[in-house]
C-alpha cells in the first residue's frame, strides 16, 4: 500500500486526472448499463430479443469503429479529442430520456457506443505517452482496478437514481461525465509530453499531418490499416485477445446461463451474486499487486500463468456448484484476468510505432468482439451438449488464445532482430 501511495504521489497531475476520469466514466457507464434493458423494454417498447440484438449490435459497431477512433487519436491532440467525445456522451445521455422511437434510440446508442469505445482507445494512448515505460504496468493496473470499482458501484448508483426520476440513470451519467470533463478543460495545459529536444508539446500527434482534407485523411487511414495488417505480432496478439476475452469477458453471463440449467432459479441467483462479488473483490484487491510486477521481457511467462489460472478455474467450476468451491474457482479464474488485461496493454504499447499508438490500441480494442461472441458460443453449447461441456470448450478456446499470444510474441521478437545485411550496415556505419 505504501508503494502504491508513493507511486501515485509521484505521477504527473495529468495522469492522476486521467485515472480519476477513468473511474468516473466507469461509474457512469455501469450506472446506465444496469438500467438500459429496462429502458428499452418499458418506455421504448422493445421485446427481449430486440433488446439483445440492439445492445450486442451497438457494442460490435462501437468496437469496430474504435479502430478509426484510434487513428483520429494519432492525428489530433488527444486531450482535445477526449473533451469532444465526453461532450458527445453528455449530449447522448441528456437526449435518451426524451426519445422513445426505437430507430432513434438505436441511432443514439450507436453514437454512444462509438464515442465510448473511441474514448477508451484515446485514453490508453494518452496514458502511454504521459507515463514512463517503467511505470506503465503499474498505472494500467491501477486504472483497471479503479474501473472495476466503478463497475461495482455504478449499478447501485443507477438503481438509486431511478427513485428520483425514470430518466435518473441517464441524468446521473451525464453529471458524472461533466465532472470528469471539467478537469480536462481546466488543466488541459498539463497534458503535454516532452519532445526529443526537451520542449513540451501537446500529448498527441505533434508531428501528425493535418486532417483537414477528407480525401487525404481517408488515404492516410488506408495506409495505417495497411501497416497494421502487415504487423504479424499485432494480428496474432489481437486474435489471442479475442479468444481469451471470449472466456473471461462474459463470466457472469455464461455462469448465469449455466446455473439456471443445473440449479433452481433462487439458488442460481444467489450463486451469481457470490460469483460477481468474488470477481470484483479479487480484481480490486490484487490488480495493482500483480500488474505492477509485469515486465516487458517476461510477458509471455505471465500470460502462461494467467492462462493456467483460467484453465484450472474453469475445470474447478465444472466440478461442483457448491458455493465455497465455486467462489474459490472464480477467484483463481479471476487471477487470470488480472494478469492478462495489463499484459495485453503492455504488449501493444511495446510494439506500437511512434505516431501510431492510438491506431494500435484501436486495433487491440477489437478483442471486445469476444465479449459479444462468448454468450452466443456458450448458449449453443448449453443447448446441444451436457452443461459441463461448456467449460471444457472454454478451456480449449483459452488455450488457443494462449498459442496465438505465443506466435505474436515470437513475431515481435523476430521483427526486433535486424536482418544480417541491416546489422552489417549498422555496424559499419553505412
From TrEMBL:
Location within or outside the cell: Cell membrane
Transmembrane regions listed in the UniProt entry: 17-38, 50-72, 170-187, 233-251, 271-290, 302-319, 325-348, 360-382, 388-407
Topology class, membrane: Multi-pass membrane protein
Domain Major facilitator superfamily (MFS) profile: 1-192
Key words, A-Z: Cell membrane, Membrane, Transmembrane, Transmembrane helix, Transport
The keyword Ribonucleoprotein is annotated on this UniProt entry: no
Xref: InterPro entries: MFS, MFS_dom, MFS_trans_sf, MFS_Transporters
Keyword Cell membrane attributed: yes
This protein's name: MFS transporter
Organism whose genome encodes this protein: Streptomyces galbus
Amino acid at each position: 500500500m505504501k508503494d502504491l501511495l508513493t507511486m501515485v504521489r509521484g505521477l504527473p497531475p495529468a495522469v492522476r486526472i486521467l485515472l480519476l476520469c477513468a473511474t468516473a466514466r466507469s461509474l457512469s457507464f455501469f450506472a446506465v448499463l444496469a438500467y438500459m434493458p429496462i429502458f428499452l423494454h418499458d418506455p421504448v417498447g422493445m421485446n427481449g430479443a430486440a433488446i439483445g440484438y440492439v445492445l450486442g449490435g451497438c457494442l460490435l459497431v462501437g468496437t469496430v469503429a474504435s479502430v478509426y477512433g484510434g487513428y483520429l487519436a494519432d492525428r489530433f491532440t488527444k486531450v482535445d479529442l477526449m473533451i469532444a467525445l465526453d461532450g458527445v456522451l453528455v449530449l447522448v445521455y441528456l437526449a435518451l430520456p426524451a426519445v422513445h422511437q426505437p430507430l432513434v434510440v438505436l441511432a443514439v446508442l450507436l453514437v454512444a457506443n462509438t464515442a465510448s469505445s473511441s474514448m477508451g482507445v484515446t485514453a490508453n494512448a494518452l496514458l502511454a505517452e504521459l507515463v514512463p515505460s517503467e511505470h506503465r504496468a503499474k498505472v494500467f493496473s491501477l486504472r483497471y482496478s479503479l474501473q472495476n470499482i466503478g463497475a461495482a458501484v455504478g449499478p447501485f448508483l443507477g438503481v438509486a437514481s431511478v427513485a428520483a426520476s425514470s430518466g435518473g440513470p441517464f441524468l446521473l451519467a451525464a453529471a458524472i461525465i461533466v465532472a470528469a470533463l471539467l478537469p480536462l478543460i481546466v488543466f488541459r495545459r498539463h497534458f503535454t509530453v516532452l519532445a526529443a529536444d526537451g520542449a513540451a508539446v501537446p500529448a498527441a500527434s505533434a508531428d501528425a499531418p493535418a486532417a483537414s482534407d477528407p480525401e487525404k485523411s481517408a488515404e492516410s487511414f488506408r495506409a495505417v490499416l495497411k501497416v497494421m495488417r502487415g504487423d504479424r505480432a499485432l494480428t496474432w496478439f489481437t486474435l489471442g485477445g479475442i479468444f481469451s476475452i471470449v472466456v473471461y469477458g462474459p463470466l457472469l453471463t455464461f455462469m448465469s446461463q449455466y446455473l439456471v440449467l443445473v440449479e433452481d432459479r433462487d439458488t442460481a441467483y444467489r450463486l451469481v451474486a457470490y460469483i460477481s462479488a468474488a470477481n470484483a473483490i479479487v480484481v480490486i484487491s490484487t490488480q495493482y499487486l500483480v500488474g505492477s510486477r509485469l515486465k516487458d521481457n517476461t510477458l509471455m511467462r505471465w500470460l502462461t500463468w494467467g492462462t493456467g489460472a483460467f484453465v484450472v478455474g474453469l475445470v474447478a467450476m465444472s466440478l461442483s456448484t457448491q458455493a465455497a468451491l465455486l467462489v474459490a474457482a472464480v477467484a483463481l479464474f479471476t487471477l487470470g484476468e488480472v494478469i492478462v488485461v495489463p499484459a495485453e496493454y503492455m504488449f501493444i504499447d511495446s510494439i506500437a510505432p511512434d505516431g501510431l499508438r492510438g491506431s494500435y490500441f484501436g486495433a487491440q480494442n477489437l478483442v471486445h468482439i469476444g465479449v459479444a461472441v462468448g454468450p452466443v458460443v456458450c448458449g449453443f453449447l448449453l443447448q446441444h451438449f451436457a452443461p459441463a461441456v461448456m467449460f471444457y470448450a472454454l478451456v480449449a478456446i483459452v488455450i488457443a488464445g494462449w498459442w496465438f499470444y505465443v506466435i505474436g510474441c515470437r513475431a515481435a521478437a523476430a521483427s526486433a532482430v535486424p536482418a544480417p545485411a541491416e546489422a552489417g550496415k549498422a555496424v559499419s556505419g553505412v
